[in-house]
Structure formats: structure tokens, C-alpha cells
Amino acid sequence: MNHIVLASHSKMAEGIAETVKFFLPSSKLTVLEQTLNDNSLERRMINVLETNADKNIIVFTDLYGGSVNQAFFQQLNNYRFHLVTGMNLALILECAMMNDDVNEDSLRDIIIEARNQISYMNDLFKTITDN
User: How far apart are CA 13 and CA 21, in angstroms?
Assistant: First the structure.
């Protein structure tokens, strides 16, 4: 069973979680946020990893190289989970909709598809209106 964790600075993870629930109301997501005055992220992170150790954990973080991503990255030797940084809604929705456990190969395919959805729409508009 997939267990999705959204981890970010400030309220980004909460916002994405609310949007995922808009599309998939039955989604169960764990949200971890780091704020300026918060020094408990590591304790909360380890608690989530230990509590859900029997599940297929997929952690999405907001920023490559950011403190939240670094905290999870350091735990890859201690716990079994997938870690993806640069989270976006398309990526998370795709994983949340999967009935089967996300594995390394499916996660790589989902990441490629999510990247392909990032577009500068003005170029598409020009292409459509120029014809």
C-alpha cells in the first residue's frame, strides 16, 4: 500500500494536499511542514517513517537541496522509502491514483510524464494562432 508524504517549507505541502483531496477525496496524505521557528521536523519525519514502515512510502519534497529534502535524504540509509524532490500536483496525483505499489520504474515514468506537462503555454498559443 502506498503512503504519500508531502514535505515542504511553510504551507506548500498543505496546499497541495488540499488540492489532491479536491480531485481524490479519499486520499490519505501525511503533511510535514517546516516553519521558521520549527526545530521538530526531524523528529516528526522519523516518526512518520517508523509509523508507516510497513507501507510503500513515497516522500515528495519541495526544493532540491533545501533543508526539508536534505533531512529526508539523510534518512535513506536508515529507512526504506522513495524520495522525490521538486513535487508538483501532476506527479502527486498520478501516484495517489495508483492502486498498485509505486516502484522505482513506475516512479521514474511518472516523473518523466510530470516533467512533460511543464510547458510555456505562450508558445503553444502562438503555434495555434499562427496557423
Answer: 12
Q: How many helices (H) and strands (E) does the chain have?
A: 6, 4
DSSP state of 125: H
- Helix or strand run (H / E) with residue 118: none
Q: Do the beta carbons of residue 49 and residue 32 sit within 8 Å?
A: no
Main-chain dihedrals φ then ψ at residue 2, nearest 5 degrees? -75, 135
- pTM score, whole prediction: 0.93
List Cα–Cα distances, 52 to 1, 41, 42, 74, 95, in angstroms. 10, 16, 15, 18, 17
Angle between helices 89-97 and 12-23 (to 10 degrees): 50
Query: For residue 128, what pLDDT band results from cuts at 50, 70 and 90?
Result: very high
